[in-house]
Design brief:
By secondary structure, the protein is mainly alpha-helical. The chain has 6 helices and no strands. It folds into 2 domains: about 120 residues, no CATH class; about 40 residues, no CATH class. Helix 1 packs parallel to helix 3 and helix 4 packs across helix 6. The chain is globular. The protein starts with 20 loop residues before the first helix and ends in a 45-residue tail after the last helix.
Length: about 180
C-alpha cells in the first residue's frame, strides 16, 4: 500500500505525510498543478481505492493544467449569490485564543479550499456522470417541461437541471 489508511474513518484517506511511491508523486503533482500546499480529502480518499487516484488524475489533469477548469470554476463562483455574514470583531477572535498568525492561517486554508473545491465540484461531477451507468444525482429534481426549441440541451448532465440547462456549461463539456 502507498500509505496507511484508517478504515474506521467514514471517509478513509491516505495522509499526505504517509503517502509513498506513485501516490506521493501524484499528491506532489496535485499540489503543483493546483498551486496549493494541501491535497484535498477527495484526492486522499481516491488514493485508498486501488488504481482510483492514478486513473482519475490522469483523466482530468489536462483540464486543470490548461486552465480550463479554473476558468469554469471562476465563472461558477462569479454566478453565486452568497449570503452576507456579519463581521467577526477582532476582540471575539482574540477571546477565542486566535492570534494574527492563526487568523492568517485560517484565511489561507479557506482561500485554497474556495478555489480548489469549485474546480473539484465541476470535474468530479463530470467524471461521475461520464462513468458508464452513473445515474444523475439522487437529489436531482426533474425540471418542468419546457419548450425544447427554446433551450440548449446539455448532454453531459453537468448540473441538476441538465435536461433544460441553458445558463452555464463548462467550456470543455461537449454537447
Amino acid at each position: 500500500m502507498a500509505g496507511s489508511k484508517s478504515m474506521s474513518d467514514p471517509v478513509p484517506a491516505i495522509a499526505e505525510s504517509e503517502a509513498t511511491g506513485s501516490i506521493a508523486e501524484i499528491f506532489a503533482d496535485i499540489r503543483s498543478v493546483y498551486r496549493v500546499g494541501v491535497v484535498n480529502l477527495i484526492w486522499r480518499h481516491l488514493a485508498t481505492i486501488p488504481g482510483g487516484l492514478p486513473w482519475v488524475w490522469t483523466m482530468i489533469r489536462p483540464l486543470y493544467a490548461d486552465g480550463t477548469v479554473g476558468r469554469d470554476a471562476a465563472a461558477l463562483r462569479a454566478g453565486l449569490s452568497l449570503p452576507e455574514l456579519p463581521p467577526w470583531p477582532t476582540a471575539a477572535l482574540r477571546s477565542a485564543g486566535l492570534q494574527d498568525g492563526d487568523i492568517a492561517g485560517i484565511r489561507t486554508v479557506l482561500a485554497a479550499y474556495d478555489r480548489t473545491n469549485a474546480m473539484a465540484l465541476i470535474v468530479f461531477l463530470a467524471v461521475q456522470l461520464r462513468l458508464e451507468g452513473a445515474p444523475p444525482p439522487l437529489d436531482a429534481v426533474a425540471p418542468p417541461r419546457l419548450q425544447p426549441s427554446r433551450y440548449r440541451i446539455c448532454l453531459c448532465r453537468h448540473c441538476l437541471h441538465w435536461r433544460t440547462c441553458r445558463r452555464w456549461r463548462p467550456s470543455w463539456c461537449s454537447p
